[in-house]
C-alpha cells in the first residue's frame, strides 16, 4: 500500500473493509471472513460497538474472567477482569484465597478530588492579574452554573479555583488550577466543560478590565483540560497478619516475610525493579478498570506520575514487619466512574458492575486497589520463592499447545502430564511430538 486514502471515515463499513482487505492484506477474502467472524450476531449489539469509535471494522476480543473469593472490608466479591495475560486472573484468585482466612483486605478512601487546569499566557503585571482574578472569581463560578447545577444537587461540583503563577517556568505562563468533586462519574466531560467556560469567561472579563493595559487585556488561553494526575483522589488497601501465619511451601514463614519485605524495599529504591514491580500491580488494576468500562490509559498515566511524586520512580506498595506483624499496603490514585461513559452502554461492562453489586465510584476505587495489591502479593510471593516462570509457564501451556496445533485430547493429556514437569517451549514441543508419534 503506497497511496493515501481520501474520505475513509465517510465510506460505509463494507467499503472500509473492502479497502483495507484489498490494500493491506495478502488474502482479502480471508480478511473479510475473519473480520465478519468477530462481529456480534445481534446487529443491535454490533451497531453499539461500531459506534463507540470511528472506522470500526470488527470487534477485538479479550477474555472476560472473574477472580472470586475477595474479602474486602468484610464483604465478599468476585472481581471481573478483562486481560490477555495468562497468569493474571489465576494469581489474583490465589492471593484472594491466601488472605481469606487472615481477615481479608481492608481499604480506606483518602480523597476523591479531581483536577483540571486552564493554561494561559498573560503578559503584564502579576499583582494586577491577582486582583483581577479575585474580582472575577464569583463570576467564573456563575458562568458555569448551568453545567454544575445537577452535579451540585447530588453533592458534587467545583471545590476550588486557584490562580497559579508558573511564569518562572515559561514567560507569562499562568493557570487556573481547579479542583472538582464528581461523585460517581469519572467526570472528564463535566470537568472539561467547566474549564472551557472558565477560559471563555476569563478572556472576556480581561478584555473589559479597566486596570489592564491593552497587552494585559489580551489573555491568550493555550488550553483547558482535566489532569489525569490526581494525587488527592487516593485509596489505600492493606493486608496484615502475624508473620507465623504466612504458611508457604518450602520456606519458613519468617524467611518468606523477610524476603518479601526486602523485595518491596528494592522496588522502593531501584527504578529498574520499581517499573516491573508496578507493572505487576497494573496487571490487576488495568484488568478491572477495563472490565468496568473505565479509562485505563488515564489510570496508568496518573498512577505512574504518582509513583514518581518524590522525584524518584518507586514502588506503589509498601511492606513492613513490626512486632511480629507482617503488613503490606498500597496507596494509589484512581479516578474512576460507575456512571456515564461506557458504564451504561457496553453490555459486559454493565454485567461487570452488576457482579460487583453496582458499586459507587468510591467502592470501585477500593476494589481496584485491592486487585492491584493482590496481584503484587502474588507476583512478589512467586519471585521470592519458586520464581515467576513456574506458574507463568503453566498458565501459558495452553497458549503454546494451541500455537503448536494440539488437539483437545492432546491438550488434556499434556496439561495433566505437565502438572509435575517443568514447562518450557522445548519440553512442550518434545512432549507433544512424543504423544503424536505414540
Ligand atoms: C508480569 O506481567 C508481571 C511481573 O513481572 C511483576 C513483577 O515482577 O513483580 C511478574
TrEMBL record:
UniProt GO molecular function: hydroxymethylglutaryl-CoA reductase (NADH) activity; hydroxymethylglutaryl-CoA reductase (NADPH) activity
Family, per entry: Belongs to the HMG-CoA reductase family.
The reaction(s) this protein catalyses: (R)-mevalonate + 2 NAD(+) + CoA = (3S)-3-hydroxy-3-methylglutaryl-CoA + 2 NADH + 2 H(+)
Record-given protein name: 3-hydroxy-3-methylglutaryl coenzyme A reductase
Keyword Oxidoreductase appears in the UniProt entry: yes
Segments traversing the membrane: none
EC number(s) stated in the UniProt entry for this protein: 1.1.1.88
Coiled-coil stretches: none
PROSITE patterns reported for this sequence: HMG_COA_REDUCTASE_4 (PS50065)
GO biological process terms held by the UniProt record: coenzyme A metabolic process
Keywords: NAD, Oxidoreductase
Top-level taxon of the source organism: Bacteria
Enzyme class, spelled out: oxidoreductase
Annotated pathway: Metabolic intermediate metabolism; (R)-mevalonate degradation; (S)-3-hydroxy-3-methylglutaryl-CoA from (R)-mevalonate: step 1/1
Keyword Repeat: no
PANTHER family named in the record: 3-HYDROXY-3-METHYLGLUTARYL-COENZYME A REDUCTASE (PTHR10572:SF24)
